[in-house]
């Protein structure tokens, strides 16, 4: 029995050199983690993900079913950049996530927490029992879970200040990285854009979306209160999705047959302003882009910090490299560019990538990086 358990926890094979995979969209990193599991370089269960990013990427598609999360590689086409980690945890492949954030990213408070991910018994949809605002805002909270898995999330800041000896020792003690683990780096950790800030900026669209998509958190966090909140939030999000789906198809809400609620009135008023601006620009509005921007407006919106070239190099030299030198060796390394979607500034991404690769390859014995983003149409 002990041998069986050891085989579950430990990888059976080791890479001669650490592979590095560079992707564009961050969710594409997961296929290489799954391949490492299939190749017995990672265990089927219990992997640690060390995630350096300006965003947690730990949401769940509200319509993703638990059975899909456990469907192996069939899951991959269903994922997006913000929701690829928790489904892997639902399948048991990832047991712990360590999110190292830059100083300007504060979607979670620092520290360690445990929660469960599993299936809602009535709908089969994947949900978590975490009371974090991050999950409440997407109506993802539920205490009623089947097929549940425990997930440990540790959040800590990584900055140039961390390189000071006592602070690095303190950080290492808090994150407690053990093998086997995957080192996962998003280049927007070093400089972070917000693509929605430039969407119809002449009419201040991003600010206009706030009162439409925002919702107040309750003072109490008892389960009954949160369940009512989630039900109300789900209705709000579904109504907004219906409204923007109608706009996408008809470019107007004139023929909308749904509930003419206060939310309808706010979206209708916004639509008239957006249509006028789009007409001025001689273009057709991208209503799903407007909707996606609105979905980021809850809880203070997305992080935004465009670093200088000097700041980027200093962060690599004084934060990333000392961290890597202090860690055990990872099984594999994934790097996301995140520039096509505007999160890593396009004019900086190649510079950041070169510095990060130089740092990683200096510290570890690695293969030549596999630049997957240059061959995104290959079969996976």
TrEMBL record:
Key word Coiled coil present? yes
Keywords on record: Coiled coil
Q: Which InterPro entries match?
A: UPF0489
From which residue to which does any coiled coil extend?
A: 223-250
Would you identify the family this protein belongs to, as annotated?
Answer: Belongs to the UPF0489 family.
- The scientific name of the source species is Manduca sexta
One Pfam entry name: UPF0489
Source organism, top-level taxon:
Eukaryota
Name used for this protein in its record: Uncharacterized protein
């Amino acid at each position: 029995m002990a041998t069986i358990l050891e085989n579950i926890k430990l990888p059976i094979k080791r890479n001669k050199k650490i592979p590095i995979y560079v992707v564009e969209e961050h969710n594409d990193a997961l296929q290489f983690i799954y391949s490492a599991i299939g190749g017995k370089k990672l265990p089927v269960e219990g992997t640690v993900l060390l995630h350096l990013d300006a965003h947690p990427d730990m949401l769940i598609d509200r319509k993703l079913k638990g059975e899909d999360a456990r469907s192996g590689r069939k899951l991959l086409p269903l994922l997006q950049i913000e929701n690829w980690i928790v489904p892997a945890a639902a399948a048991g492949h990832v047991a712990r996530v360590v999110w190292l954030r830059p100083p300007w990213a504060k979607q979670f408070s620092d520290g360690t927490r445990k929660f469960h991910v599993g299936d809602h018994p009535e709908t089969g949809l994947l949900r978590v029992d975490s009371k974090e605002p991050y999950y409440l805002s997407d109506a993802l909270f539920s205490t009623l879970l089947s097929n549940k898995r425990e997930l440990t999330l540790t959040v800590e800041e990584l900055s140039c200040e961390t390189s000071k000896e006592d602070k690095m020792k303190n950080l290492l003690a808090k994150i407690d990285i053990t093998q086997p683990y995957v080192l996962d780096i998003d280049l927007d950790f070093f400089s972070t854009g917000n693509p929605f800030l430039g969407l119809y900026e002449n009419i201040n669209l991003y600010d206009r979306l706030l009162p439409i998509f925002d919702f107040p958190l309750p003072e109490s966090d008892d389960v009954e209160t949160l369940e009512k909140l989630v039900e109300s939030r789900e209705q709000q999000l579904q109504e907004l999705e219906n409204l923007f789906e109608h706009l996408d198809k008809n470019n107007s809400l004139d023929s909308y047959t749904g509930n003419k609620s206060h939310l309808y009135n706010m979206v209708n008023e916004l639509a008239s302003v957006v249509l006028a601006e789009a007409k001025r620009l001689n273009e057709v509005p991208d209503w799903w882009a407007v909707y996606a921007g609105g979905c980021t407006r809850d809880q203070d919106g997305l992080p935004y910090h465009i670093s200088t070239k000097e700041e980027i190099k200093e962060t690599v030299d004084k934060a990333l490299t000392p961290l890597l030198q202090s860690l055990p060796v990872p099984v594999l390394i994934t790097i996301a560019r995140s520039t096509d979607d505007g999160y890593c500034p396009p004019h900086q991404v190649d510079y950041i990538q070169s510095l990060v690769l130089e740092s990683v390859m200096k510290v570890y014995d690695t293969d030549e990086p596999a630049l997957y983003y240059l061959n995104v149409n290959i079969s996976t």
